[in-house]
């Protein structure tokens, strides 16, 4: 009875129930020679990494823990022997590394997208963007580790994007501790669109994403940009139809290669290449005029999902405070933490046939 309860409710038991075979092809690309699989199977090594992260232990600590509780080691796939802490480090940091864990993350997202589609849910139709502070090591000399006056932390910024309907994380990255959030939007949008291979209808963010460049990018890529506005925001006189028409006429008179204005859509398309900032001002004005509508408020309200995702990741893992130095290591830690959350919450629940509240706790252990 005791072993049955352990398998159903413990973290190790949960990981033994999750089907991770769809990741084997990716793992085999990075795991090396085939003789390694006989000693420590690559799926078992991945379970161990997820187990370590959710347990919030370092590599030495998790091996000591499993020696004390060998029945949990068996559930993870280590019936005969446990790898050494150095082997675990080499597996995570050298064999897989950031590239390998990003590929595992993307493959997991794609697998969940397929399961959600079968249930009639489109993953990533609207995206929520935000960043969260991640405390760096005090002696980190990386150029991206900066002291942020707002948070009063020596930190990196962890940029994440999640699905506005399910809250499932879809992308991650690390930026400088004092860098502006909004400039990452085009890069993240492009990565997610390539991953999901579908139309993204909109992006939801705070006022830091509400820039002229991002509104221009949204126009060129045909999606809605739903952002917050500061209280003192005013209508921009340089983003009106009349102002843009005057700009176009002036260029038309000065340069013979520009055709005469046919209609306002034609003017926007030409000025998007010649005066992108003013076109961005125009679309920001259009968003400002609709910010009080019910549709805009409803979409804007979904932004809290990405903040919930940050809370979940920091509560269940050690990502809030880094133990290694450098931007690449910070991004690796963020990627491993998000992959651990994906496997232990939404992937596990979807494989059990559930489609609601996918980011909730699924086991009784921290």
Written account of the structure:
Strands 1, 2, 3, 4, 5 and 6 form a six-stranded mixed β-sheet that branches. It is elongated, with a radius of gyration of 24 Å. Helix 3 (24-31) runs antiparallel to helix 8, helix 6 packs across helix 8 (85-118) and helix 10 packs across helix 13 (276-290). The model is unreliable at 1-7 (pLDDT under 50). The protein has helices at 2-9, 11-17, 24-31, 35-39, 42-55, 59-68, 70-76, 85-118, 185-196, 212-221, 241-254, 264-274, 276-290, 294-300, 304-316, 327-351; strands at residues 126-135, 146-148, 153-163, 169-176, 202-205, 224-227. The two termini are 22 Å apart. It is an alpha/beta fold and 366 residues long.
Provide a quick synopsis of the model.
With 366 residues, the chain is α/β, with parallel strands linked by helices. Helix content is 55%, strand content 11%. It has helices at residues 2-9, 11-17, 24-31, 35-39, 42-55, 59-68, 70-76, 85-118, 185-196, 212-221, 241-254, 264-274, 276-290, 294-300, 304-316, 327-351; strands at 126-135, 146-148, 153-163, 169-176, 202-205, 224-227.
What is this structure's SSE topology?
Elements: H1 2-9, H2 11-17, H3 24-31, H4 35-39, H5 42-55, H6 59-68, H7 70-76, H8 85-118, E1 126-135, E2 146-148, E3 153-163, E4 169-176, H9 185-196, E5 202-205, H10 212-221, E6 224-227, H11 241-254, H12 264-274, H13 276-290, H14 294-300, H15 304-316, H16 327-351
Parallel strand pairs: 1-5, 5-6
Antiparallel strand pairs: 1-3, 2-3, 3-4
Helix pairs in contact: 1-2, 2-5, 2-7, 3-8, 5-16, 6-8, 8-16, 10-13, 11-12, 12-13
């Amino acid at each position: 009875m005791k072993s049955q309860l352990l398998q159903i409710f413990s973290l190790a038991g949960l990981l033994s129930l999750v089907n991770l075979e769809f990741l084997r092809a990716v793992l085999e690309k990075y795991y090396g020679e085939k003789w390694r699989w006989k000693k420590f199977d690559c799926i078992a090594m991945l379970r161990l990494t997820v187990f370590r992260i959710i347990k919030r232990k370092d590599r030495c600590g998790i091996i000591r823990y499993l020696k004390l509780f060998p029945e949990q080691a068996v559930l993870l796939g280590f019936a005969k022997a446990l790898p050494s802490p150095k082997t675990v480090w080499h597996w995570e940091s050298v064999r897989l590394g950031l590239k390998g864990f990003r590929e595992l993350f993307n493959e997991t997202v794609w697998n969940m997208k397929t399961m959600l589609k079968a249930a009639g849910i489109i993953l990533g139709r609207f995206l929520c963007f935000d960043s969260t502070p991640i405390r760096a090591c005090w002696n980190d000399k990386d150029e991206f580790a900066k002291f942020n006056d707002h948070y009063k932390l020596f930190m990196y910024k962890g940029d994440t994007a999640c699905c506005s309907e399910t809250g499932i994380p879809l992308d991650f990255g690390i930026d400088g501790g004092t860098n502006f959030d909004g400039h990452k939007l085009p890069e993240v949008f492009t990565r997610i669109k390539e991953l999901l291979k579908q139309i993204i209808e909109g992006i939801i963010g705070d006022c830091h994403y509400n820039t002229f460049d991002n509104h221009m990018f949204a126009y060129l890529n045909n999606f809605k940009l739903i952002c917050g506005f500061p209280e003192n925001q005013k209508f921009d006189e340089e983003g009106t139809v009349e102002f843009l028409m005057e700009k176009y006429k002036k260029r038309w008179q000065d340069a013979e290669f520009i055709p005469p204005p046919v209609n306002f859509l034609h003017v926007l398309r030409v000025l998007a290449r010649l005066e992108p900032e003013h076109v961005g001002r125009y679309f920001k004005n259009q968003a400002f005029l609709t910010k009080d509508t019910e549709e805009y408020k409803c979409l804007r309200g979904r932004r809290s999902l990405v903040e919930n995702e940050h809370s979940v990741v920091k509560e269940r893992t050690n990502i809030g405070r880094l133990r290694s130095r450098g931007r690449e290591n910070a991004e690796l830690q963020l990627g491993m933490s998000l992959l651990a959350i994906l496997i232990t919450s939404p992937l596990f629940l979807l494989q059990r046939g559930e489609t609601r509240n996918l980011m909730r706790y699924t086991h009784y252990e921290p």
